[in-house]
Amino acid sequence: MGMVTAKYILKRILMVLAGYLVAVLVGLVAVTAIYAALSSLPNAPAYFDVMGVSPIAALAVPPLGMFIYFLTIVVTGAQTLVFALIAEFFALRNALLHMFFAAAAAAGGFFLIWPSTAEEMDAERWADIGIIAAAGLVAGLVYWLIAGRDAGFRRPLSPGQ
Asked: Which among 100, 114, 107 is positioned nearest to 143, based on CA atoms?
């Protein structure tokens, strides 16, 4: 493996990391926006209002915002790393694939934070899972825009090579 290939792999690793960190931030913004929008619907649960205004608390108390950001990284990092490696090794560049995986990673992270029994799976809980997964779709699109559309550890050959 030559120096050019090593540089290319390092560049891909940095792009994956940057894409993930930005996607997590955008995903958290999307969660808030979705809750805020849904809180205006009739019969919306009262906690939707709280979720919609939570960024004010995160901005007023920066350590709280950083805690939420890092907690999200902790609960979604492992599954995201697995997919990122698969995407890089197999040069998977499909936007929908990245969006689907991010939705699954977000929902999986939600289950890690709030595990439940079958009796607790009520309509509000399913709504929360759907909201988190929808925010994951947004995060997956952002990740794809930054790193996923050029996925692949193998450097593409230039014409004539």
From this structure: 100
